Amino acid sequence: MPYGEIPFDRSRLDVLRDLLTKLEAQGFHGVVKITSLSGLFCLSGNAADGFTPAGASVLASKCDAVGNPFEESLSGQQRQSLAFANLIAGVRQRTAGAITVAIENAGSARPNTPYPQRVEALTAGEWNRAAAANNRVEFAAESSSEP
After folding, report:
1. Strand, helix or coil for residue 108
2. What is the value of pTM for the model shown?
């Protein structure tokens, strides 16, 4: 997901809606776990004015910060849009609790794409490609025994 976008909104809303529709149709009972993971971006800017991903040709050694202050600043409720929250509440209600949704923030601890080695010629563009791949939301359905 792009830097600066809340994890549980936009295209993730469509993915969740499709997943829940399929699970409901199959009579699924269990938990859908949704985990947000953040990439560590090479950023330009400052805390007062905000940060943006550094220009692609900027040397990574010239980043003003490496991290994801946008993601770190969000509270639990700020991580999801109202439409996302309503979708979760609706499936719980429609299925009488047979399908529940659990949301987790795993931070930057589990990158799925390795960051490039920090060498003198490394650019922000190269670094941020890995950060963008690691800035993601994962969905997993865990079945429980039938009631």
Report:
1. coil
2. 0.86
